Amino acid sequence: MDRRTFLTTSATLGTGALAAPAVARAQSTFNWKMTNAYGPGSPFYVEGPGSPTDFCKKVEAMSDGRLKIQHFAAGELIPALEGFDAVRSGAIEMNAANAYFWAGKIPAAQYFTTVPFGMNFQGMNAWLYHGGGMELWDELYEPLGLKALPMGNTGVQMTGWFREPIDSVADFQNLKMRIPGLAGKVYATLGVDVKLLPGGEIFPALERGVIDAAEFVGPYQDRRLGLQNAAKYYYTTGWHEPSNVTELLMSTQAWNSLPADLQEIVKVAAMACNLESHTWCEANNAEALKDLVENDGVIAQTLPDDVVAELKTATDTVLADFAAQDAQVKKVHDAFTAFKTEHAAWAAVSEKPLYGLPG
What is the DSSP letter of 258? Predict the structure, then answer.
């Protein structure tokens, strides 16, 4: 064999040996299922820009069809709040919900949805992406065979709907309220009878008087549920949920089965939806609130200052006690609080003066 023939033959063999696995990897396709804690047609949580169904479309387009995800809203495949167990068991690969729904399974998971008097959209994402939050989330979920990513954020939420006005902390006594997460623990210390209901069950419960008050999201989504037809007092401050993260929950086994490029596509699509969903909320809530006030007789107002002050005091106590009872909670709590303190110092210089400028 002369030198030219040897080099040509070697190059051909080398290319084939190296290229074949790459081609095989490139041609691998995955068909996954995603369930959801929210009902069919729910804006933001199921459909629309930055929603879970939008995420599925983005992933399929970006992967050129190599990763296809079939989405099922609550009740279409499993009940609303069974996604955690379904992913963990391997029955499905993905679930869209909020981590605070798993408080009974992993108490510390609540910090990855929202924290009362915590951080807004900017601060929460700064902590998750660049302040060690994602690493803590991974550390929390990895022993359970789970992987999570932020996939959406509502931004600041409304305090909620009340059938009667709130004039003082005494009005919380024996009030039956739908409120999830750590805020529910805070309300409970002030005498509220806390209820955890899926979104689809809120309106009938409020309309029939099964509950006296309810928190859901913000004007656009709340209007769609018809909550304005069951209560007229609509309060704000956002103390309970200064931001709210949508959790993309995945089976670690399924996640590890993806090649690196598809993993990156999932990460980028989730990050894109995180931004797009928030901007969608910002673009739609103003019109919805105006409509609720002008056309539905809704009384929109801020909670009294002394009530907010009492809520802050109760929150500090609840969070301190919560952290003292669980080592995982304490680790996450301390990290969250330390980052919040740093971010608040910057926000006091950057954003707070801006909000005081003439409109």
Answer: S
